[in-house]
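Review form for a predicted model. The reviewer records the input and the model, then writes brief findings.
Reviewer: anonymous (R2)
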Amino acid sequence: MTGQERKSKTELMLKELNIPINIGLPIIEEENEAKIRSEKEIAERILILTYLVAYADTNEKDQIINYLKTEKLWEAVSKVEKKLFSKSKLTEKDKINISWHTEIIYLLLWSIQKIDDIGLPIEQCDTEEIFNILPEYLEDTSDFISTAKVRTNKEILDKSDLIYRLHWAVRQAELDDDEIPANIDAEVIEEWHYAINWITYYDDNWDEILTDT
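Model under review:
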């Protein structure tokens, strides 16, 4: 499927859902040109985000940092994340921002076939479902990482194209002070867009991913 065919397919889907489209939005990368993160990278990022969420909930900083180092994950922790781990106490704003990472984790789990279908971003994910998939708290992560299998370029780019155009529709509705179409959750689509742009190398650095529309 070419980028133009993918764009047309997504636009048809959005029309059927009565979601506005912007025909001027460009196509995304072609399948044969796409660069996709490896299953190992994605699985490790899931685990790092999971333990950042755990830290925000439990404040067990030292235990979690030691665990991430033991599991050889600490080197993949971003600069911003290390700053959060270095704080003596997280602010309420920090905790709220971190809590939204569960939506990123959900999309990333889908991308390595740990979740079959994520549908549309119309409600927040079921955190119990997520934690049932992940390794037990502070347990070995090797099996989780080794069994990850990244989806095909087509699947990833189909999702990327959909998220991109959905996010435009949400932002346009907000700009126009209109009702957000199809019950799309604005916060969830933002997190999904961040995740899929990282998977597709919109930027190399986790802390600097943009969600342009």
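Findings: The mean pLDDT is 96.
Further findings: Residues 10 and 162 are 6 Å apart (CA to CA).
Recommendation: see findings above.
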